[in-house]
């Protein structure tokens, strides 16, 4: 029983060390800084909201040439916004790091560590 408790304590320590390493890595710090920059930039936040709303509108209303043109215009504005570009780039880098970490852990334990679950809740 004591051996199992020691294993659990070792595992908890490893998990805490892993979480700490993620929080201290460059990708995470850069993402958090870009997120803060986005939160402070009301113009960029509004542009992103407009873009997301237009995407939703197009999805719900079906194909409409005018809405599609508006979406393309907003998409170009999003791509040209430095704050949003940095945010999305940092987000992509962090997701890539987490995917690689997941792959490495899965390899070490011989099974899928984290899975992308589809479907509803409960």
Automatic annotation (TrEMBL):
Species of origin reads Methanoplanus limicola DSM 2279
Could you tell me what this protein is called?
Answer: YlbF family regulator
- InterPro entries per UniProt: Com_YlbF (IPR010368), YheA/YmcA-like_dom_sf (IPR023378)
> Pfam families, from UniProt?
Com_YlbF
Gene3D superfamilies associated with the record:
YheA/YmcA-like
């Amino acid at each position: 029983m004591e051996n199992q408790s020691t294993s659990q304590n070792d595992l908890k320590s490893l998990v805490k060390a892993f979480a700490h390493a993620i929080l201290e890595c460059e990708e995470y710090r850069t993402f958090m800084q870009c997120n803060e920059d986005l939160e402070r930039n009301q113009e960029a936040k509004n542009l992103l909201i407009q873009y997301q709303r237009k995407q939703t509108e197009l999805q719900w209303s079906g194909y409409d040439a005018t809405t599609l043109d508006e979406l393309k215009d907003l998409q170009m504005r999003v791509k040209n916004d430095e704050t949003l570009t940095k945010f999305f780039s940092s987000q992509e880098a962090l997701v890539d790091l987490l995917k690689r970490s997941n792959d490495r852990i899965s390899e070490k334990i011989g099974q899928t560590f984290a899975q992308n679950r589809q479907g509803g809740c409960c």
